[in-house]
Amino acid sequence: MATKTKHSTKAIESYMTIEALGTFGEFNRYRLERCTSKRPLLIELGGAVTYAVVDAETIDEVTGLPAVIRQESTPEAAMAGLCDRIDMVKLLAAA
User: Fold this and answer.
1) DSSP E strands: which ranges in the chain?
2) First to last CA, the chain
3) Residues 61 and 69 sit within 8 Å (Cβ to Cβ)
4) Which residues contact 72 (CB under 8 A, 6 or more apart)?
5) Over the stretch 77-93, which tens digit does the pLDDT of each residue have?
6) Structural domains of the chain, count
7) What's the mean per-residue pLDDT of the chain?
8) What radius of gyration do the chain's Cα atoms show?
9) DSSP state, 35?
């Protein structure tokens, strides 16, 4: 089940909705997020939704929050190489 993620930056919230889809990897190190743009031009161009992987063990130097280590147009591409296919299917089925 997807849960809403609260980010501390109002700037991000003004143009993007971020939804945590679940965690995966050893000790749930990674979190898959669906990032949906609120900007009409991106929606028209088909770039309204991207998928990001956040790594709990890598801290962003600017925000002090876990860092986004990958951003892709599909959840499969975002998760590729970070977990096996069975974990990927389980996470996507639950989302």
Assistant:
1) 3-4, 16-24, 30-37, 49-59, 66-72
2) 5
3) no
4) 50, 51, 78
5) 999 999 888 888 988 89
6) 1
7) 81
8) 13
9) E
